[in-house]
Amino acid sequence: MSSLSSPDTNSTLATRRLKDVYAVSRLVREARSALEGSFPLVWVEGEISNLAMPASGHIYFTLKDEAAQVRCAMFRNRNRQLRFTPENGMQVLLRVRVTLYEGRGEFQLVVEHMEEAGSGALQRAYEALKYRLGQEGLFDQENKKSLPSMPSSIGIVSSPDGAAVHDIISVLNRRFPAVNIILYPVAVQGEGSAKKIAQAITTAEERQECDVLIIGRGGGSLEDLWSFNDEQLARTLSACKIPTISAVGHEVDFTIADFVADVRAPTPSAAAELAVPDSAELLNKVQGLGRRLTFLVSQQVQNKSRHLQHLFRRLPQPKTQINQQAQLITRLKQQLNRSWLRIVENKQQKLDLLTARLTHPQAKIDTQQQKVAGLKTRLQQAIKQQSQAVQQQQQNVLQLQKQLHNGMQQIITKNKTKLSQQMRTLAAVSPLNTLERGYSITTLATSGQVLQSSDDVELGQEINVRLQQGQLMCEVKEKKHD
Fold first, then answer.
1. What is the pTM assigned to this prediction?
2. Which residues of the chain have pLDDT under 50?
3. Structural domains for the chain
């Protein structure tokens, strides 16, 4: 037999094939996803009613105001952080996730945090303690200690398992790898955590093993951060002799520890940036100072070299002095010879004249001979005196030459010593000494430009790497910017 279908049945089947028909579970599930995706964590204020606290530890209640109400659930893991007991009719402030309970298809709120509405008990306690400590001067700026510019050791008081300590260590290692990091592990929330944090600060101060102390944790509610609003912790932090940085929560979170600490950082990562300098900036500064020092030393050496050359040009040469004195002696000797010849000639002329006029009487002859003998004796004495004077002048010239030579030697020795000292000073700051310690100087092969960053060279370019012994010609295959 063949089965028969009515026209209405066929129409219904066709309609189902053309339309996307939702199952109830699918509809509720997608509605829940839409709700949770549209609402982040939000704050809601209202009055508690229909409160139920079963043995499971969960809390169920209705939150209402004068116009509407909504069902709420606060699970056991969140209840443990409550500092008061909820009651019907109590006005509360909730931080909630908006969701849909699929089992009953009911719109509800899952409570992450609950506090008394209005200022709240915790908020009131926080404001009271803040006011009292402020009146005592614990927040005064003149009591704050300055952070060292170049710390050698950083102490961290935080939970070893929290993200905050890992962020701090990561930033410290990136900015200043040479710094020593000391972790003082503590619990950062829960009962007794404030006392343990204070004890860790005291321990760090007693050991005197760090230059800066970072106290911090990640963000959270007022209850989560309550350990850092403890009075004992605030007084311990105020009395600490080590410069302290408070890095509690996010930028919008403020605790008593933030006001007491020497420096307040908006986040743990920002605390690490405040604690240490940027090693890359320091390296650039040192390199700049090194280049400036090299330039100044080079200028000084050039100036001294020019001055030394000027002194050499002004300094009389010993050989020139000796030649001048020798020429003077030769000229004096020639003048002496000419004078002696003129005297002899004059005497000879007089002798000839007298001889011509001389009669032959023996007496006159004898007299004239005696005069001639006397004149000859005087001439010989004059020649001898002249010779002695010439010898004395020669000795004076030789002594002057010796003194001049010794003076020149002393000046040359002194200038050589001064030049050697300047050369040793130049060698001490020479970049070649840096090469001897294993460093190298990298320049572009074409222009000779010194490379300081990977951005100064392109892939495929040839570079010259100068070592302490020899050079390497290289081609750039890859660039890394870390």
1. 0.42
2. 1-5, 119
3. 15-118 (2.40.50.140), 139-277 (3.40.50.2300), 315-428 (no CATH), 435-475 (no CATH)
